[in-house]
Design brief:
Among the domains are: 50 residues, Uridine Diphospho-n-acetylenolpyruvylglucosamine Reductase, domain 2, CATH 3.30.43.10; 93 residues, CO dehydrogenase flavoprotein, C-terminal domain (Enolase-like, domain 1), CATH 3.30.390. The chain is built from eleven helices and 14 strands. Strands 4-5-10-6-7 form a five-stranded antiparallel sheet. The protein is globular, with a radius of gyration of 18 Å.
Length: 264
C-alpha cells in the first residue's frame, strides 16, 4: 500500500466538498473491490473519501411493493432484513452468498455496483429485478447502468444514494462460486415481473448481461420445463477457474437452479 489521505465525512454535502477540494481523491464505501486495486497499484488516488459514516446512506425501507436500500447498507444487513426477506427473498439470499462473514459485514451494495466487478453478485440482482439506481444527480435504469468491466455510466464525482427494487411475482438466484473468494464463476438471477421475465448473468462475461435467448425461451412466466440453448462464449471470461465454454454450460445449469428456487 502507498500513502494517501483518508477522509470520513458524516454528510453528503461534506463528502462532495472534500471531493471537489481534494484533487485526485476517490469515494469508497466498504472497499472490498477498491482496496485490492490499490494494493496492486491498479488505482492510485491521492485520498479516499469514506461514505459509510453518512447516516442518510444506510437504511432499508419497505413501502407498498417497493424496497429502497441505501447505498452504504452492508450485505449482512440486506441478508438479515426481515423486510427484504418478506418482499424479495431472492435478494436476501443473494446477499447472504457474498464472500464470507467478514466481507458481508464490511461490503456495501453501493460500493459493489459502483465498482462493477465482473464476478460480483449484486449486478445480477440489479439487472434481474430491473432496479433503479438513485444518485445525487439522477435516477438510472438498470439496463443503462453497467457499461463494461469495472465501468458504469456514473459521471465523475457522482454518488449513489440508494437502489430501488420493485418486488417481483417470483425470483430466484443461483451461482457457482469460486471456492476461495466466493465470487461468482457464474451467477444467474431470474425474475418474473409484471413486465415479463428477466434473466441476468454475472461472472461469465466482462460485465453483467441479460440472457435474451433464455428470456425468449421462457416467455412470460418462469417454468421448469424449458431447455436452454448453449450461449456463444466467444467473449466470455476464461481463466484458471473455468474456461469460457464451461461458463456457457454453467449459465443454463445455474438458470435452472435459480428457477427451481423461485418456484418453491
Amino acid at each position: 500500500m502507498y500513502e494517501f489521505n483518508y477522509y470520513r465525512p458524516t454528510s453528503l454535502e461534506e463528502a462532495k466538498e472534500l471531493y471537489n477540494s481534494a484533487e485526485g481523491a476517490e469515494y469508497v464505501a466498504g472497499g472490498q473491490t477498491l482496496l485490492p486495486t490499490l494494493k496492486h497499484r491498479l488505482s492510485k488516488p491521492t485520498g479516499l473519501i469514506d461514505l459509510v459514516s453518512i447516516p442518510d446512506l444506510d437504511f432499508i425501507v419497505h413501502e407498498n411493493n417497493t424496497i429502497l436500500i441505501g447505498a452504504a447498507t452492508r450485505h449482512a444487513d440486506v441478508a438479515s432484513s426481515l423486510q427484504v426477506q418478506s418482499s424479495i427473498k431472492a435478494l436476501s439470499y443473494l446477499a447472504s452468498c457474498i464472500g464470507d462473514p467478514q466481507v458481508r459485514n464490511i461490503g456495501t451494495i453501493g460500493g459493489s455496483i459502483a465498482n462493477n466487478d465482473p464476478a460480483a453478485d449484486y449486478p445480477a440482482a440489479i439487472v434481474g429485478l430491473d432496479a433503479t439506481i438513485i444518485t445525487d444527480r439522477r435516477e438510472i435504469l438498470s439496463d443503462d447502468f453497467f457499461v463494461d468491466m469495472f465501468e458504469t455510466i456514473l459521471e465523475t464525482g457522482e454518488i449513489i444514494k440508494a437502489v430501488r427494487f420493485e418486488a417481483p411475482l417470483k425470483a430466484g438466484y443461483a451461482k457457482f462460486p469460486n471456492p476461495a473468494s466466493r465470487y461468482a464463476i457464474v451467477g444467474v438471477f431470474v425474475a418474473e415481473t409484471s413486465a415479463g421475465v428477466r434473466v441476468a448473468v454475472t461472472g461469465a462475461g466482462p460485465y453483467v448481461f441479460r440472457a435474451d435467448e433464455f428470456e425468449k425461451a421462457l416467455g412470460d412466466k418462469l417454468r421448469d420445463d424449458v431447455e436452454f440453448p448453449l450461449l456463444s462464449y466467444e467473449n466470455f471470461n476464461s481463466d484458471i477457474h473455468a474456461s469460457a465454454e464451461y461458463r456457457s454450460h454453467l449459465i443454463s445449469v445455474m438458470c435452472k437452479r435459480a428457477i427451481a428456487s423461485a418456484l418453491v
